[in-house]
Give the backbone structure.
Amino acid sequence: MPERIWHTSKLEFFIDHTRRWLADVKENAEALAEARTKPHVLADTDVARVKRVYTDQAGDLTLFEEQAEKWGQLPDLSPSRRQKLQILNDQLAELRELNKQVLALADELAQGTIDTVMAASEAELGLAALLGQQSGA
């Protein structure tokens, strides 16, 4: 495995990148949350793609967190850079939480994809409809 390159002078880049990343994840999380009321519009492949992307993203987040930790260990980090580092850490914490939420939501949505609905028997669908009516009463 090649030695990791630590980006000692790229704090602003990481902040900007993470800000855009956070906006994208928020948008995707909102779209998935909307699908909660109609998971049948998603296919198994859609949910699998979400899981793959956000599992990979969790690994990327770890790299960003390790980089931020390296910056935090620098003894000569100026107060303004330390403040910027706190901004980055806050963004990374929010990203980590959203990432977990998206993965949990994907697991939930996987239970009602169009593929799952189409594979269900008429009896299963009828029971689900009855249970849905009872829970709504």
Summary: The longest helix spans residues 79-109. The chain has one domain: 11-136. The chain is about 75% helix and 0% strand.
